[in-house]
Amino acid sequence: MARITFDPAEAEGLRTAAREAFTDGTPALAYTLEKLAAEGIDLESCIPWDGLRVELGLPEDDGVADVA
After folding, report:
1. Is this structure's pTM higher than 0.85?
2. Rounded distance, CA 51 to CA 26, Å?
3. How does 6-38 read in b/e, with b if 16+ C-beta sit within 10 Å?
4. Positive or negative torsion for Cα 67, 60, 53, 35
5. Residue 34 banded pLDDT, cuts 50, 70, 90
6. Which of 4, 34, 37, 48 has its C-alpha lying 20 to 30 A from 15's C-alpha?
7. 7: which DSSP letter?
């Protein structure tokens, strides 16, 4: 199983951001950041962008980035 893990400094940065998100009133973001710091990212469970795009009914990528 492939997994991305964070070195201790990166993990601490994620935990700091999680504490800030929690005090700013976004506990879901805080939970997500803390979970990333603790567990990393399981690449086996990731959905490729094209699969996610189709699942969400988004149009095909035309190669032009729309920036607001």
Report:
1. no
2. 28
3. beeeebeebbebbeebbeeeeeeebeebbebbe
4. negative
5. very high
6. 48
7. -
